[in-house]
Amino acid sequence: MKSKLLPGVIAALFVASPALAFEPFVVKDIRVEGIQRTEAGTVFSYLPVKVGEQFSEDKASQAIKTLFATGFFKDVRIEVDKEVIVVVLDERPAISQVDFVGIKEFDKEALKKGLKEVGLAESRIFDRAVLERAEQELKRQYLSKGLYGVQITTTVTPLERNRVGVNFNVVEGEAAKIRQISVIGNQVFKEKELLDLFSLTTPGLMTWYSKSDQYSKPKLSADIEALRSFYLNRGYLDFSIDSTQVSITPDKKDIYITLSITEGEKYTVSDVKLAGTMVVPEQELQKLVKLKAGDTFVRDSVTATTKAISDRLGNAGYAFANVNAAPEVDKVKREVAFTFFVDPGRRVYVRKINFAGNARTRDEVLRRELRQMEGAWYDGEALNRSKVRLDRLGYFDEVTIETPAVAGSTDQVDANFTVKERATGNLMLGAGFSSSEKVILSASISQQNLFGTGNAMTLQVNTGKINKTIALSFTNPYWTIDGVSVGWDIYQRNVDPTSLSVATYKSSSIGAGVRFGYPIAEDDRINFGLAVDQTSIKVYDSSPAPYVNFVNTFGDSAKSLLATIGWARDRRDSFVYPTSGVFQRASMEIATPVLDMRYVRGNYQHQYWIPFGGGYSLMLNGDVGFAQGYDGKELPFYKNFYAGGIGSVRGYQQSTLGPRYTDSLGYVRSLGGNRRLIGNAEYYFPMPGSGKDKSMRLSLFADAGYVWGADDRIQASDLRYSTGLAFSWSSPVGPLKFSLGQALKKVEGDKTQKFQFQLGTVF
Description:
Function: Part of the outer membrane protein assembly complex, which is involved in assembly and insertion of beta-barrel proteins into the outer membrane.
CATH superfamily of the largest domain: membrane protein fhac: a member of the omp85/tpsb transporter family
Organism: Zoogloea oleivorans
Family: Belongs to the BamA family.
Shape: extended
Main location: membrane
Keywords: Cell outer membrane, Membrane, Repeat, Signal, Transmembrane, Transmembrane beta strand
């Protein structure tokens, strides 16, 4: 006959109760009843007694508490049948599936991942309390999107083998819109000026895309901080936000936000001092101070000063330097004095440099770009320089650095570089389209990080109507450990531009060359090259007279020994998504007098990026080209410069600006020229709604340029101008560029082209 020793839940709560005491005994056997999914061995592992051992009331209480603590069971009972322990269990059901109905705002898989973090997931034990937390988490996600009218109904369906299915039926409703944002208490600045600082807005033309008219607590917090910064950067040290009220209408469709502020008085800086341990000469640190006595108080200047001093100490090896600005406020005179207390801490050195995220790129490719060495003193400038150099490689979308302290050491840190690799192979297609011309295509396939070695190889294959090309190029950027590069090129190229708006002729070229690059400074390189080229030319009755005369004078086949020399300086912050820095490049190609042709062709480009923060930047670009024959030889016409189209002056058809002529068929065609001038100004800004995603950028551009022939006088009045909107996106399927340009100056004979694009496929 069985006798109950401890009833399930009561026993778990009142294990100290002496009412059901029993005499200890030696266990002859243990049986487990009521389990369907749980293995008996799992239950045995939680029991504090085994067969042959003595079983007591304390061990029974301990066993029940332990089995309940697993969360696997709703009820636990321990019964005794003579000297046999019988463990009777009532299992909790397991979750067989989690499903959603009516979800549009979120990705279902992302939601499942989020609910898993609160304990609700397939194959886990079903718990009603966990389900309630999951419902609250799901509702919180919708509230963060401004969907305050969301209704969530949860259904738990019993299934075979003690399992359940959990279904969330969601009626999302409409997102609540911000109908009004008010600022109360402002006297110095107009409310409109303050509201322009906010990312949250009332409904407008583009808010359907940006969602800026949907309330978000994090966004409001960011807007409040922007408002605070606005006042503190204009001297209002006592500025405060007294209250923030967010109200929603009963139908949960309209939201009203009211901020009550106190502007306070405007303060000026009365004095600035440095104090503390000066491991760097104080005169040098004084130069880093961004505010002076008599200036209006600007909080950003205080922040910039502390950062500049910390960075300077970091460059000297003090990685954990601490700089604090202590204000002394005189409310009567409305003045504030600052003392910057400098605590350099201990000087540290870098123990190890580690890389993560480079699944394809070899470690040595990254390591050779570093300017911070292992075992050397910590140098903040060298670390930042290393990050910039890695970013310029073009292999990564993102590069981050962390410098954690080494456990158990006070003077060592590790430098951990984490990279996010991007596709470095491209199948590029270039295209232009207009109502009067056919689509023009070109293609190339390249890999800038061949097998993760950092070497670059490009195979250009073009079977189009205009260009038939096959060219193979290879570059090893680190032929020597010092960064001397070597590369070679082999090409065969046929050009038939008769379907374009340029002069009619055909050319066929074959050649090969080798080139070297040598670093002369941290950001500067010089390049040398030598190549052999043979070009055959065919002209027609419709070809322009200068082309025909050239062939009659120098023949229809020309050999050239081409020497090239170039210099480049790259101080941009990123190769893929630049926002600041300078890029300069000068090159010259000389056809030496060893073979047939004799000419000089030079080009200079200067590009300047001005950052405005938050992904906004202005790019200014200038490009000048000049070419001329020498020693009684003319410049080959197939070496002429052209302008117009993407890459020069958008809004005009490709290669149509400059000297032109009318052929025998009545078509106006471009001749090109030996002098070219291009200028571009482009203001880049993030795509609305893209957040921190840098891969999509919009830009407003203004282009200018022209090409002049050898007999033309260079005049500013010849320049053509255009403006428009451009969009660039490093998409998962490749780089995309679109421009919508408007020609601002159109002279008779000019051919315009409003829409132009360039697209590619990444592999």
